[in-house]
Amino acid sequence: MEITLTVNGEEYALDVEPRRILADVLRENCRLTGTHLGCEHGVCGACTVLVDGAAVRSCLMLAVQCDGSSVRTAEGLAGPDGEPSALQRAFSAEHALQCGFCTPGFLMVATGAMDADPELGDHPERVDHIVGSNVCRCTGYEPIRRAILRAAQEQRQTTT
Prior knowledge:
Blueprint: E1 2-7, E2 10-15, H1 22-29, E3 48-51, E4 54-57, E5 70-72, H2 86-93, H3 103-116, H4 124-132, H5 142-159
C-alpha cells in the first residue's frame, strides 16, 4: 500500500505491506533507528513515538494506520541546529540513562505528556505514572523521574 508519513517534519512517500508495523517502517524505510524494539508486545515502551502528538507503541501500530499522520521520533527532539531539547539535557544532567535502550521511549512518552500538560512539573504523581508506563532495567527509575520533572519545570518557567 502507498502511504505518506511526515516524520520529524520530513515527508516520506512509502510503499509498505499492510502487515508491517510502524516501528519497522521507521527503522528500515525511514532509516531512523532511534525507535527501539524491545518486547514487541506493547509492554516495555522502548518503541514509543508520537503520532499526531499522542504517545503510541509503534510495535502495536501498523504503518498503514498512520497514513497522512505526523510522526515524531527521538531523532526529532533536538532543535534544528542539533541542540538537545530541554528533556534530553535533563536526562543527561540527571544521569537518567545507562545502557540507553529504553531512553528513546521514555523521551517520547515524556515529550507527549509535557506537550499535553504544561503543569506536569507541578504534579510528581503524574510523572510517576509516566515513568511507570515504560520499562528500564538499569537506572532504577528515580533518575528518569527527576529528569522529567526537571524538564517539565524548566518548560513551564520558559513559557510563563
